[in-house]
Amino acid sequence: FHLGEREEKCIIEDIPSDTLVVGNYKVQRWDLHIRDFLESAPGLGMFVTVTSPTSEVLLSKLYGPQGTFTFTSYISGEHIICFQSNSTRFAVIAGSKLRIHLDIRVGEHFLDESAIQAKDKVNEVNIRLEHLIEQIHHVTREQEYEREREEKFRKTSEETNSNILWWAIVQTLILISVGIWQIKSLRDFFISKKLV
């Protein structure tokens, strides 16, 4: 995505609880002379802020023009990840465009490659097995979170359907009572005019 030098841009990620999130980014600055983005933006950094659904700040740190940030979600819900450059130029003259390459991996588990390359094959199998077990636990947490969301959505739908049903019943009763009142008023009018 593109970003102005002093502009802040936020991304919303729906993350289950107890999940590790790893984000990699790279910043490129627009060069007016070559009319293209430079491969890197030396001297320019990114201020990364992560906020939980309860507005608690989980991460607030200044990184370089390229970096990796990690955080763990403690509750499930929409986490807000915000980026802002640390440009020292004033907003009026900070007209440079920035291109941000961002890769966010939810539920990432670190796998120690140096341990895997160990000569003992039993340890290698054991480490891979532990990694697979961690991934299974992550998938289980993700499924539980989706079940919670589906149950909440189903309850909301049932409440809405119930409200619509009662509103239709109330409208029908009002329509019937207005019809009865009109018939009675017309009958009384005809009787008073001695037309019936």
TrEMBL record:
PROSITE patterns: GOLD (PS50866). The chain crosses the membrane at residues 164-183. One of its GO terms (cellular component) is endoplasmic reticulum membrane. It is a single-pass type I membrane protein. Residues 8-106 form the GOLD domain. SMART domains: EMP24_GP25L. Keywords: Coiled coil, Endoplasmic reticulum, Membrane, Signal, Transmembrane, Transmembrane helix. The keyword Hydrolase does not apply. Belongs to the EMP24/GP25L family. This is TMD11 protein.
